[in-house]
Amino acid sequence: MIATYPLPVYLQRFFTERLLTQMQASPNTIASYRDTFRLLLKYAEAQTKLPPTELHVAHLDADIIGRFLTFCEEERGNSARSRNTRLAAIRSFFKYVAGCEPQLLHHCQKVLAMPSKRHEKRVVDFLTRDEMEALLKAPDQSTWFGRRDRVLLLTMIQTGLRVSELIGLRVRDVELGTGPHLRCMGKGRKERATPLRADSRDAVKAWLAQIDAEPNDPLFATIRGAPLSRDAVERIVRKHSVTVALTSSTFRLKRVTPHVLRHTAAMQLLQSGVDRTIIALWLGHESIETTQVYIHADIELKERAMALTKPIDSTGGRYRPGDELLAFLEAL
């Protein structure tokens, strides 16, 4: 079996035929799958002492994949959620192989049967009104970079765009006339328009006047005009978060990331009384259930619900069983 099914052949077909041609997967999906298999191939090379070009499908069995996932958690420090993302990419590949080669069905089923790891679902982090204002004041407005960073942070906080959606914005995607909004291509290749508040509209308008860019130019770019990378946006958020943390005790306790700014946009909508169906549409969620996490995070909403309840007037007392058998069970 090992000598019959070379791994490079199936892996190349998986990316070119299945993902790119048949599924038309997004660039983000391709990049995520690519990174998973780069790590897996390097790990398999270390374990089998064979270069990736000489590996066969049977070399990647459930045992080595299980050890690889453990390696990702323990050695690379990946979370259980990241581990499950890696496993999902591997499962997709073996599902493809099983359909191509029925002889490998039993081998593939062992990998497909590997369970995802359960993980804690923590309450999402978000910024309060004071923290938002402090973050927007952090960039130095006397510099080009500071002016860019403030407009970028304001746009993220108000629109809730994902980083991939933000760095994909072009000047042509901005509409500042009646009904100002930004157009973006979201997850699952779904195009959506996100309204701009008056302050965000004015900030973006001033930024466009300053950069004097062409329609196909990126809305947020480097000093040389190149689109910002995901890492660059994360550095910008981290840089100004560190500045705010020097003077804010509450900010110091939070790990602020671009996704926290997305959560902040959702919480602003929720606390303003916007229905979660609209919030799901605003954020480009596939399912309304995804928006449920913001309800769990909103302590003010829970406090308002508690205020509607009535206190119990009766005085509590200890239960006293009236039967010997019940007393026996109570004493256990």
UniProtKB/TrEMBL annotation:
Membrane keyword on record: no
Gene Ontology BP term (one): DNA integration
Database matches in Pfam families: Phage_int_SAM_1, Phage_integrase
InterPro entries: CB, DNA_brk_join_enz, Integrase-like_cat_sf, Integrase_catalytic, Integrase_recombinase_N, Integrase_SAM-like_N, Tyrosine_recombinase_XerCD
Keyword Isomerase attached: no
Gene3D superfamilies (UniProt xref): 1.10.150.130, Intergrase catalytic core
Keywords on record: Chromosome partition, DNA integration, DNA recombination, DNA-binding, Plasmid
GO molecular function: DNA binding
Stretches assigned to the Tyr recombinase domain: 122-307
Top-level taxon of origin: Bacteria
The Core-binding (CB) domain, residue ranges: 5-98
Name of the protein in question: Tyrosine-type recombinase/integrase
Lineage of the organism: Bacteria, Pseudomonadati, Pseudomonadota, Alphaproteobacteria, Rhodobacterales
